[in-house]
Structures are given as C-alpha cells and as structure tokens.
Amino acid sequence: MSTGKMAKLEFDSKTIELPVTVGTEGEACFDIGELRAKTGAITMDNGLMNTGACYSAITFLDGDKGTLNYRGYPIDQLAEYSNFLETSYMLFHGNLPTAAQLKIFNDKVASTQTVPEGIHQLIKTFPKNAHPMSMLSSALVALSGHQSEWCEKVPSKIEDQEMLYCQLLAQTKILIAASFRHSQGLPYVPSNPKLDYCSDFLQMFFGTNAPKQTGPLVAKALDVLLILHADHEQNCSTSTVRMVGSSKANVFASMSAGVDALWGPLHGGANQKVIEMLELIHKDGGDFRKFILKAKDKNDNFLLMGFGHRVYKNFDPRAKIIKVECDSVLKDLAVKDSLLEIAKGLEAEALKDQYFVDRKLYPNVDFYSGIIYRAMGIPTEFFTPMFALGRMPGWFSQWKEMIDSPAHRIARPRQIYTGSALRDYVPLEKRH
After folding, report:
1. Per-residue pLDDT reduced to its tens digit, 143-186
2. Which of 88, 139, 282, 360 would disulfide-bridge 393, Cβ 3.0–4.6 Å?
C-alpha cells in the first residue's frame, strides 16, 4: 500500500508532505488524513469524483479500459462459469468456495427462505399502486424489529455475519416477490428450497403456472444479471450503506438505506428510464432514427438513455455479457413487443453511427437489463428492486469490510460554510 513517497503541498508559506499510497492495480492516492491539522484547510470535491473514502479489497473497475473485477476475478469469467450464490460467497469471504463450502452456503440460504408473518402483513398495508421500493425499504428495516438481538448490536463474529448475510440474500427475494404479488392482488407463493435461487424467485414472482417466464433460459439470464449487478465499487448506494453503517446502525437499517439511495433515477432507475424513452419513441411513431438525430443535435435536449456511462469511458464490460443473454431471452420467449423492436433497431443504428462510435457512447448494462426485464414480464416499476436484489451481496460485503476494519470511524464529512457572517440577534419587537 505505502510507497514511501511523499507529495508536497505549498500553502500559506508552509510546505507539508502527504504520504502517497498505491493500490493493487496501480491507482495512486494522496493521503490527506492530517491535512486539516497541519494547514487548517480541507479539500473540496463536489460529487466526490476525486476522493477516496476507503481502502477496499472487494471490487476494482477501470472505466478507461472497461475493466470490472470482483476480488480479482474478471466479470466475464464469473458470468460464464459462476452463479449468483457462488459469486455472493466469494464477495463475502474473499475466495471462491470448495464444493463442500458452497453446499453449506446454499443450504444456509435455503434454510432462511421465510419472513415473519408480521412482514407479510406490513406489505399488505401498502396501497396496491405503491412503489415497490417503498415496500422493500420498509420491510427490510422492519426485519430488525423482528430480530431484536441485532437491533442495537453489530455482529463481530464471522458466523453471525454469515448467518445474517444468508438471511438477507434469501429474504430480499421473498420481499420483492411478495410486493409484486400484493400489487397484482395475487396470493403469496412460498419459497421452494429445492429450486435454485433464480428459479425459486421467478416462481415466487410469477407463480407456478408460468412455464415460459420461469424456464431455465430465463433463470440463467436472471442469474447473470444479478452477478453483473452484485457490486460496483463506491457508487452512491454502496457509499450510503457505508455511511449509515459507520454509525454502527444495525445491518437491516444499513441495507434499507442502500435501497433508498438506489431508488433515485440517477442511480438505480436508469433501466426504467430506458423503457420510458422507448415508450416516448413508440408514441411518436416509432422512428428511432429521428431520435438518434435529436440526440446528435446540440440544440436539442434529448438524451439517448442507456448509452454511455459516467464511469466507463469504453464499452461497459457488463453490457457485452448481458447482450448475449438478452438475445437468448428474446428468442426463447418469442415476445412480440413493438418497444423491443424499437430497442433492437436503436441499438443496431447507434453501434454503426460514427457520432456514437467516436464518443464511445455504447449501449450499457441498463439498456439491456431493461429490455430483458420487460421481455420477462417484470413491470417497469420493479426494475429497481431487481437491481437491489443483485446488489445485496455487494452492500453487505462492503458493510462487513468496513465494520471489520481497524480503521473504522464514523463518517463525518466537512463543508465550506457560505452563509451569513456573524450577526447580532434583534428582539422581535424591534424588527421592522
């Protein structure tokens, strides 16, 4: 980590030295931990795009090269050879499991695939048109009320941490499926521990009489989608989980906070925005070429949703993988949907248009995930809960890494005050 090198900063006639550290993949860092103590000044970084908030051994991404690795394993290898629960084990423990370890882990997840009846009753109190993220966030934090031993206690033993981890992996899919069934006025479908993770979720979601939507190809595509979303470094929701967890709030509250951060349209709602864009194009007559021209027009405010990425300056590595699954699902389900036809035309046209090629505005994972979810029959408002389902392993693993760290401290950012200077209080009767 430490390089032994020092960076020099000149400020107010003084020169101070800042230690330089370097990560495994060569990323350099100026450690400013003593900056304020030595200079009385702080740094300002709106959006925190140049600020490292932690050291982490979980996920590495290089936006310029289009690289994404979990614990050193390339995302394309995990998507091809692993499954969601094996990847979840690896994110939590740091290494891939043996066959025996994976069986024990799978059994632990299967053994916790129920939620208290009070949680089901809580979901039923919501209006049927309530946004599912409100139900998911509320139900997750309510779980702490049903497990009072963890309400004010942060687990320090690995056995307790893994038990809670397996429980949340199992219960999150139950909460999402139960929320959908409630929104449709349909009876709850209990979990079947004999099924694999994704097949079980699809059956709880769509019911036992939907062979197409719960088939093996759809389950495989969902498994890949969940792997691709499992973690993504220090994004908004992950940073929120760490921020809330830094106060030693219980794990259910921390995960619920992650759901709330993900809810925002600038974060987890991107795949929903893709569908809304396709609906707009369809309503206008379906001429996607017209909207490609609008996106290229500097005087037009129209944006092609699902193209490009804030972090990736190359092709989103997850998009390359999920495109294959997207094509497979569309073929298997043989869905006749004008929006999906527009999406395929939009993708083909943009990929060969020099304007988008030069700017590396390639379709990202949100573009394809929205199309897959729609083809599956998952309502648009449930896209973000599906994102949360995939992100749960990352949130929990990041939370665990933080609370286990000897350097753990409560997060407390600084600010630069820009309000009024010191003023004297004027009694009410003297104010005019």
Report:
1. 999 998 888 889 999 999 999 999 999 999 999 999 999 999 99
2. 88
pLDDT digits (tens, 9 = 90+) for 352-362: 899 988 888 88
Strand partners, 30: 20
Which residue in this structure is represented by tokens 């197409």?
Answer: 212
DSSP secondary structure, 34-81, as one string: THHHHHS-----TTSTT------SSEEEETTTTEEEETTEEHHHHHHH
Catalytic residue among 182, 229, 232, 309: 309
Using 50, 70 and 90 to split pLDDT, how confident is the model at 330?
A: confident
Supply the pTM of this predicted model. Answer: 0.92
Question: Is 93 in the active site?
Answer: no
Q: Active site includes 366? A: yes
Task: Return the structure tokens found at 60.
Answer: 């590495």
d(CA 411, CA 418): 22
The token pair at 388 is 């949360």
Q: Of the residues 366, 404, 424, 432, which is catalytic?
A: 366
Instruction: Give all domains of the chain, ordered by start, each with its CATH number.
Output: 2-52 (2.20.28.60), 74-264+382-404 (1.10.580.10)
